[in-house]
Amino acid sequence: MSSPASNRRTFAIISHPDAGKTTLTEKLLLQGGAIHLAGEVKARGAARRARSDWMKIEQQRGISVTSSVMTFERDGITFNLLDTPGHEDFSEDTYRTLTAVDSAIMVIDAAKGIEPQTRKLFEVCRLRSVPIITFVNKVDREGRSVFETLDEVADALALDVVPMSWPVGMGGVFQGVLDFATDTISRPEGDSREFLGKREPATADNIPADIAEEIELAKAGYGDFDVEAYRHGDMTPVYFGSALKNFGVAELIDAIARYAPPPRPQPSESGTIEPTDKEVTGFIFKVQANMDPQHRDRIAFMRLVSGTFKRGMKLTPSALGKPVAIHSPILFFAQDRELADTAEPGDIIGIPNHGTLRVGDTLSENNKVRFTGLPNFAPEILRRVALKDPTKTKQLRKALDDLSEEGVIQVFYPEIGGQWIVGVVGQLQLEVLISRLEAEYKVEAVLEASPFDTARWVKGSDAALSQFADFNKSNRAKDRDGDMVFLARSAWDVSYQQERNPDLTFSATKER
Ligand code: GDP
């Protein structure tokens, strides 16, 4: 663990809305010294939101649409926490963010257990073998029995569970949390019953008999923590706590520092790229426009995979093919922006640009590496975009290009007819689209039913493609990159075409 990459821990928090992700994020940043006042994450978020019209949707719905990066340091470890929007309609954005982390914390509500969104996000983590540390939150309130929660995690997610701590009562009889590693109990203090630093060694006298019995049963029943099994994604260590009252937060940070994996190697077309490789490489997993409406800036978030990045360095984005100098990279310390001079594998760099960088792009010094496995998700809802003012066609085209590049929507330009089609994964993306068209591009548009039901990217030899294209003009479109898309009226349509054109592939996602 002596390579420079090994002191990075890049992770995300996955949870169902309301389980306590925001509160936990705030407490992690507070402990890590990134912010100094509780409430600051929300307060600053609110100030920022007020400046941007489209983010009103966030406020109204109480969800977080924007995804950001928060970096903090403790005991020589740099933690990169990637925030993920919690609402299910933003799964595409969340999934992409999960391609850029090495591990995740799964927050569950002690009273509610595994909820639908937790399960969905967990499945994404499992697909990519992202190891999970579980945090059972809100033990200061009445919750289910600890065994019930542990067994639910084990059964629902098919994981081995190992409790790393145990609540000493919950709700009205909550007396703190016993940490197994140190055998100490963190105690509530004062009127707020928060954890303010008071720890006591556990003894036979200060743990109620029924709880001592539970713990004994648990230790016999659940086996020992095995860091390799955890890193494989087979086992999850489970911590109990209260983000609101600060219980279990320090233990959680220690667990990430100690057990969570350092930056992982990344698959590419030409083999695996190791974090220790000298060449600077990375990939863009998110693009966010107009973070500051005053500047109309666009930030591409790059996960550094290998090499030591230095400010001013020239990197070649795979889609562009020629090098660009990265003069003003940004590291995110809480919500503040700071210029980064260097960055190591695992770090996230914000790169301001005017549309040259796209989700899925590989950046590298030699322009040879192409990372794989960064999918565009299949659009499940297709809509035709109609303008209220037909003279605004140019503005609409620009807006659709921008927003598709950001990953808010996917856009398809049919070969025949002037009506453009947008594809999304969830309904809420459509609302964001309309609202941002108005706020940022002054374009009023409405969405109409589309004759198409689904879209497939078509690939094959030039000859096969052109033959296919000749016969299917009215079903053919180009995406923002000019790649051919088959717009199908039904799933049957897709299988029919597939059968008739065995030399072509019809893929639901576009891997870049
Ligand atoms: P998110 O939607 O997952 O980001 O959840 P929030 O962090 O916004 O929390 C949802 C609600 O649960 C808020 O009212 C929090 O104050 C409350 N909450 C969060 N953590 C705890 C906790 O440990 N104990 C209690 N009692 N309430 C909590």
How does this model look, in words?
This protein has 512 residues and is α+β, with helices and mostly antiparallel strands. The strands form seven sheets. An eight-stranded antiparallel sheet has the order 26-23-25-24-28-29-27-30. It has a seven-stranded mixed sheet with strand order 2-3-1-4-5-11-6, sandwiched between helices. A six-stranded antiparallel sheet has the order 16-15-21-12-13-20. The radius of gyration is 25 Å and the shape is elongated. Bound molecules: guanosine-5'-diphosphate. Guanosine-5'-diphosphate binds at residues 15, 17-23, 86, 137-138, 140-141, 242-245. Keywords: Cytoplasm, GTP-binding, Nucleotide-binding, Protein biosynthesis. It is found in: Cytoplasm. Belongs to the TRAFAC class translation factor GTPase superfamily. Classic translation factor GTPase family. PrfC subfamily.
Brief digest:
This protein is α+β, with helices and mostly antiparallel strands and 512 residues long. It is built from 13 helices and 31 strands.
CA-based shape: elongated
What class, by secondary structure content?
alpha+beta
Please tally the helical runs, counting DSSP H or I stretches of 4 or more residues. Answer: 13
Widest β-sheet, arrangement of strands: 26-23-25-24-28-29-27-30
Strand fraction band?
A: 25-35%
Round the mean pLDDT to the nearest integer and report it.
Answer: 85
Query: What's the count of strands?
Result: 31
The whole-angstrom Rg is 25 Å
The major β-sheet equals:
8 strands, antiparallel
Family: Belongs to the TRAFAC class translation factor GTPase superfamily. Classic translation factor GTPase family. PrfC subfamily.
Keywords: Cytoplasm, GTP-binding, Nucleotide-binding, Protein biosynthesis
Subcellular location: Cytoplasm
Binding site for GTP: 15-22, 83-87, 137-140
